[in-house]
Amino acid sequence: MEELYREGKVRAIGVSNFQPDRLIDLIVHNEVAPAVNQIETHPFHQQISLHSFLKENNVQIESWGPFAEGKNNIFHNEILGSIADSHNKTIAQVILRWLTQRGVVAIPKSVRKERMEENFDIFDFQLSSEEMETIKTLDTNTSSFFDHRDPAMVKWLGERKLDQ
Ligand SMILES: NC(=O)c1ccc[n+]([C@@H]2O[C@H](COP(=O)([O-])OP(=O)(O)OC[C@H]3O[C@@H](n4cnc5c(N)ncnc54)[C@H](OP(=O)(O)O)[C@@H]3O)[C@@H](O)[C@H]2O)c1
Predict the structure, then answer these.
(1) Would the pTM count as exceeding 0.70?
(2) How much distance in Å is there from the Cα of 111 to the middle of ligand 1?
């Protein structure tokens, strides 16, 4: 990847699901630091300490699963719902606005055109610092999916990739 980067064939190098130990190892033993780390980040898993670590190392945080893929009934969450109502926005828009205000790049997924448009329409309102603090209370600091540091899970994921 570094060769391709130096040759101008790739514009940036990114990684995904790298925790601080793995990321710093990569940075220390290579010349080009990753530009971005794509990691599970949503209201139930806010990645506050990882985000600080990434900032210190000039690596942009990018959220995968910004809606936790709908888990924990996120689109009916009362706290998010009342914030959304007060701005005349949807819960999806509040989540994306919250991520954006934190400096987190988000890549929401939808197969529906109207939802894609809804998900882009987050630049005409602002969450107050009180609202940002309220959303903070939803953090469980735990993955809604699985642990990328569990060797059995890493093995399972790796073997799945080899199958594809
Ligand atoms: N690097 C990794 O390990 C990793 C892991 C998982 C995912 N990803 C990537 O992360 C991105 C995010 O996708 P994701 O599917 O994981 O999670 P997500 O964006 O959190 O959730 C997608 C779900 O939310 C629904 N949705 C989207 N917009 C909505 C809206 N405005 N209102 C209500 N529901 C809405 C979608 O349904 P509809 O489609 O029916 O609208 C879909 O069921 C994808 O690009 C994916 O490839 C990366």
Answers:
(1) yes
(2) 9
Q: Give the CATH number for residue 105.
A: 3.20.20.100
Confidence of residue 154 (pLDDT cuts 50, 70, 90): confident
β-bridge mates for residue 61, sequence order: 37
Ligand 1 centroid – CA 70 distance (Å): 8
Half-sphere exposure of 18 (CA within 13 A, CB side): 24
Boundaries of domain holding 151: 2-163
SS3 (DSSP) at 140: coil
Q: Which atom of ligand 1 is nearest to the CA of 91?
A: 32
Q: How many domains does the chain have?
A: 1
